[in-house]
Design goal:
The structure is a single chain. This protein is 41% helix and 17% strand. With 160 residues, the chain is an alpha+beta fold. The protein has a domain of 92 residues. It has a three-stranded antiparallel β-sheet, with helices on both faces. Strand 2 and strand 3 form a beta hairpin. The longest helix has 32 residues.
């Protein structure tokens, strides 16, 4: 078809793959530095084991080898990576991708009959992922405390 279009798309995909690999490498390096220590008490975890963690990011899906172990101070099993990064148990979406999905109503609009075609190099987002994100945002919205509007606002006087 159009050689320039093909060249541009191929370059964008290659750039995104480079970004994904770099992100995965840097994230794994950070995980390895923490080791198997409790993120809250810095005490060593007992009964440690490696755990594979798959995380969808804006650059694509990354796979990390994290630690999971029992914290005697907290009296529970912990994954230091999830705690340090603020991820919920079983959360598979990065905070940045989650915020981008949550702030783009055209992706989440239930009224649309068809979803727009994905952009070149964009990570594929399943309907289940979008549904889970909407459910999570709904739970957070229910917990918000909205300001109460004062009912003592002055009534405008009408000349008639």
């Amino acid at each position: 078809m159009n050689p320039l279009l093909d060249l541009e798309v191929a370059t964008l995909v290659a750039g995104q793959e480079w970004t994904r690999q770099r992100l995965e490498h840097r994230a794994q390096k950070e995980v390895d530095q923490w080791g198997g220590f409790c993120p809250q008490t810095s005490a060593g975890l007992t009964r440690r084991k490696r755990q594979r963690m798959k995380l969808m990011t804006c650059a694509g899906t990354i796979v990390l080898q994290t630690w999971r172990g029992y914290s005697t101070a907290l009296q529970r099993w912990v994954n230091p990576t999830r705690v340090r990064w603020g991820l919920q148990p079983k959360q598979q979406i990065s905070p940045e991708l989650q915020s981008r999905l949550g702030t783009r109503p055209r992706w989440l609009a239930p009224m649309r009959k068809r979803r727009p075609p994905p952009r070149a190099g964009a990570p594929p987002i399943s309907d289940n992922t979008v549904h889970a994100l909407v459910q999570q945002l709904g739970k957070q919205a229910r917990q918000l405390v909205l300001p109460i509007r004062s009912s003592q606002s002055p009534n405008p006087s009408f000349p008639w």
